[in-house]
Amino acid sequence: MAELKKKYDVIIIGGGPAGLSAGIYTARARLSTLLIEKGGIGGQIINSEMVENYPGFTEGISGIELTQAMHQQAAKFGVETIYDEVTGIKVDGKRKTITTAQGEYIARAVIIAAGAERQKLGVPGEWEFTGKGVSYCATCDGAFFRDKTVAVVGGGNAAATEALELTRFAKEVVLIHRRNELRATLIMQERVKSNPKIKIFWDTVVLEILGNRSVEKLKLQNVKTKEETLLPVSGVFISVGSQPATGYLKMLLKLDTVGAIVTDEKLETSVPGIFAAGDIRSSSIRQVVSAAGDGAVAAVNAGKYISE
Questions:
Q1: What is the largest CA-CA distance in the chain?
Q2: 93 & 114 share domain
Q3: Which of 65, 183, 203, 269 has its CA 20 to 30 A from that of 226?
Q4: Are residues 48 and 79 in the same domain?
């Protein structure tokens, strides 16, 4: 049986910009606050070498630096951080019990800011070669592919960012996109198309990831001609979107068709006293500035819920 931990006014699930912002606001309001993060502080934004659209940083700032500063600010105000994975939430009146891999924690209000997880391609070889040439983070793994040919799968801002990051190390980056135009913003498209190291394969999907001990080639198919080809690569970085991390919440909260949490204008969920902020909530625009704003809104309304 899980060990019962002490009580908090607010428990925040997730240590990305939304959760960190929420922690700054709850702790400054003198609410005892616990932040639970299952991986590393910062969320997906730490994969961005340069964040250029966060107000106040005219020259940009790396995702790691930005979220480290947020975490230091939250800790200064008294936010306690633990590294653990939340596996369930039980509601008994106004008491919320958070179950994790290591124990249980009790809160009066909960802010879920766990963000989204990278979607998988779901093709043969992906699982077998994860960590052996298959990656979901160029910032984390790009240096392993110095002077090699790598592929990036996807067409949005995240894929464009991954491709540009990889040009720092790789000899050639092949961007594979199933459509004939990118979904990334125009400025990101311009950077990708003007980079001599990046080659784009349009109207193309990955059918299989092949290799012996590590990735050696990709089996590709043109979606229009149905022609299949083999592309020799040493690594493949998958960036085809994100899935809200809500698997354990399906029986508790109202979710939308893609699994994101439905909230009202206060960012309160279908369960009173449980709030959601950032990429995990329905209709999020998935930007660091909006995530930070969500955290503040959720925190203020969590404080009102407790006081009432």
A1: 64
A2: yes
A3: 183
A4: yes
Q: Is residue 100 part of a domain?
A: yes
- Name the band, by pLDDT with cuts 50, 70 and 90, for residue 1: very low
The residue type of 172 is E
d(CA 135, CA 150): 11
Nearest to 139, CA basis, from 40, 242, 49, 16: 49
Tell me how many domains the chain contains: 2
Q: What is the mean pLDDT of the chain?
A: 94
Which residue numbers are catalytic?
A: 137, 140-141
Whether the Cβ atoms of residue 242 and residue 119 lie closer than 8 Å to each other: yes
The H or E element that residue 294 is part of is helix 288-307
**247 SS3 class:** helix
Instruction: Give the β-pairing of 116-118 and 104-112.
Output: unpaired
End-to-end CA distance of the chain: 33
CB 275 within 8 A of CB 267: yes
Select from 308, 253, 305 the least CA-distant residue to 276: 253
Query: Does residue 128 sit within a domain?
Result: no
| Residue 187 structural domain | 134-238
Q: Give per-residue pLDDT as tens, 193-234.
A: 999 999 999 999 999 999 999 999 999 999 999 999 999 999
Count Cα neighbours of 28 within 13 Å in the Cβ-side half-sphere.
Answer: 11
Q: Which among 291, 249, 264 has a CA at the least distance from the CA of 113?
A: 291
Binned at pLDDT 50, 70 and 90, residue 4 comes out as low
Q: At what angle do helices 288-307 and 63-76 cross, to 10 degrees?
A: 20
